[in-house]
Design brief:
The chain is built from five helices and ten strands. The protein is α/β, with parallel strands linked by helices and about 250 residues long.
Length: about 250
């Protein structure tokens, strides 16, 4: 990401690894006690173990956010999806990550579905999207009619362990006027699929060759048959180029 020029990107949409395996409870442990007993994430990502010391994780994410903010145009924004957790009796609301960045709004993504195997907890059903915006950022016409609680079903058939719902990303991108979209944690290519459907350019960054291959195959399939039905034709912009970077954040 350091190779991307300053102020060259209109929109960043991303969801980093949540560091879920660094847990004081049994949230990612296999077996009858774990809340994620049947979840793919218990096996981690293909090239990231998702278990960093908390301070190191926060430092890493702040470095990533700083690079995202650096490449934003003056009318650009970051939609940074994360998950609040309670660890050791303390709330991790990610304020230690976003502190100092111009957070304009918090959007709640309410996930439909899910399973809970632990009788000690209610079923977790939401994640948080931080809208971090530069001063001149404005929503696309009529996008401000959306509320700040969005309900989208989790991805159930995607082989990636933590895929974005494509409809969620479509709403984010179509709510902006950005022509170039960056996702520095591209995963299975959901941001690319949504960007293509909305006639936007995109840049994806991913460290896993497995996920790069997954994304490339998915993009090819969507060239023939799109996963997305576009409702609001006024949000379309001409596409100029495509690129999927097969290298990690530098």
């Amino acid at each position: 990401m350091k190779n991307i020029p300053d102020k060259s990107i209109g929109l960043v949409v991303t969801s980093p690894p949540y560091n879920l395996k660094n847990s004081t409870g049994n949230g990612m442990k296999d077996g009858r006690g774990g809340k994620w007993a049947n979840a793919a994430l218990q096996n981690g990502y293909s090239h990231h173990n998702d278990c960093m010391p908390h301070k190191e994780y926060v430092k890493w994410q702040r470095q990533c956010l700083w690079q995202m903010f650096r490449v934003l145009k003056e009318d650009g924004a970051i939609f940074y999806n994360h998950k609040w957790r309670v660890q050791g009796g303390l709330l991790q609301d990610r304020s230690d990550i976003v502190k100092g960045f111009p957070v304009r709004q918090i959007i709640i993504w309410r996930r439909k579905g899910g399973l809970n195997f632990n009788a000690g907890y209610f079923l977790p059903t939401y994640e948080v999207i931080y809208l971090i915006a530069k001063p001149k950022f404005k929503l696309a016409p009529k996008a401000n009619a959306y509320g700040d609680v969005w309900e989208f079903t989790q991805e159930m058939k995607n082989p990636h362990p933590a895929a974005f719902p494509v409809d969620l990303i479509t709403r984010i991108i179509s709510s902006t006027n950005a022509s170039v979209i960056l996702d520095p944690f591209m995963g299975s290519g959901t941001t690319a699929i949504a960007a293509r459907a909305l006639k936007r350019d995109y840049i994806g960054i991913e460290i896993s060759p497995q996920y790069c291959e997954m994304a490339e195959q998915r993009i090819k399939r969507n060239t023939l048959h799109s996963e997305i039905v576009i409702v609001n034709q006024s949000s379309l912009f001409p596409i100029q180029s495509e690129s999927l970077y097969k290298n990690g954040i530098n």
